[in-house]
# Entry
Amino acid sequence: RKEVEQDPGPFNVPEGATVAFNCTYSNSASQSFFWYRQDCRKEPKLLMSVYSSGNEDGRFTAQLNRASQYISLLIRDSKLSDSATYLCVVNMWGSYIPTFGRGTSLIVHP
Amino acid sequence: NAGVTQTPKFQVLKTGQSMTLQCAQDMNHEYMSWYRQDPGMGLRLIHYSVGAGITDQGEVPNGYNVSRSTTEDFPLRLLSAAPSQTSVYFCASSPRTADEAFFGQGTRLTVV
# Structure
């Protein structure tokens, strides 16, 4: 079983829709959590960190549920430019190795 | 702001050839790593380093060597290229564990 699991999608949504992705992790010792965005044929870039209290950045909201061991990303009012692959990243306490999920593909259409 | 610089961006090799993918960062980050990304497989860790002179293997290290003689540079060597090594390679750095990773633009390698 992979340590970080994501639904690969693709999620096809119209502009203006709200879409949510979940990511589950298997190691309860996980310390820090991130969402990265990767555009086609580009490098991954940090979208946002995920804190225990949750955090919001404009149209994007990330939440952490330690009890159920998952993190989520909510995108409101989707734009065409949101089309990308969203990678879930988990760091274990004391580990030098961030663990990446395989990514969830989002396609926003007119 | 250079960040993480990878060279070359594209490379075609013949089976059996060797080459070095270069990675340099100017942010004085301690932690550097190499990943390969294949369709449907996500990012897989090849090798990583927690500081100059210290390297370790990741998930898929076979066929690759690394060294870390300086904080800035972390080259990845393909010893004898095989078609299975056709992939996109990313170098990343971060200031310490559990921090944001910064990626280079990637190297698209094709082995024929």
Notes: The radius of gyration of chain A is 13 Å. Chain A has a mean pLDDT of 92.
